[in-house]
């Protein structure tokens, strides 16, 4: 793995961990200026957030929701791109879950792009 890919993977792991541990404050050092986020909802294109503050506010809201359980399926990095496959549960009922993926871009050690997609 190249040094750039390793750095991207480490950032993806830290990002993912903030959601798993419900620690929104851990996102503060991970999101870059000019970040762009396209959420999974509403269909078909998802809401778009532009700028560090908008992206950070959205992601912190998710990370702080203790009723949401994110389970990591896979983290992959190649160069400045990171891919997170995950499952999100919001109750113990089998049907109350969704699987998805985030495709991320990292620049200068910060996430600057996040595109979210879900299986529907």
TrEMBL record:
- Which InterPro entries does the record associate with it? NTF2-like_dom_sf, SnoaL-like
Q: Which Pfam families match?
A: SnoaL_2 (PF12680)
What sequence ranges are listed for the domain SnoaL-like?
13-113
Gene3D superfamilies reported in the protein's UniProt record = 3.10.450.50
Coiled-coil boundaries:
none
Name of the protein in question: Nuclear transport factor 2 family protein
């Amino acid at each position: 793995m190249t040094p750039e890919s390793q750095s991207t993977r480490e950032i993806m792991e830290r990002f993912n961990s903030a959601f798993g541990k419900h620690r929104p404050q851990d996102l503060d050092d991970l999101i870059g200026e000019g970040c762009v986020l396209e959420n999974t909802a509403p269909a078909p294109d998802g809401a778009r957030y532009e700028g560090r503050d908008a992206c950070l506010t959205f992601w912190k809201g998710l990370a702080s929701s203790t009723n949401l359980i994110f389970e990591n399926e896979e983290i992959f990095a190649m160069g400045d791109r990171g891919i997170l496959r995950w499952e999100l549960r919001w109750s113990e009922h089998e049907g109350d879950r969704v699987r998805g993926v985030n495709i991320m871009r990292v620049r200068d050690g910060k996430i600057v792009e996040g595109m979210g997609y879900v299986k529907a």
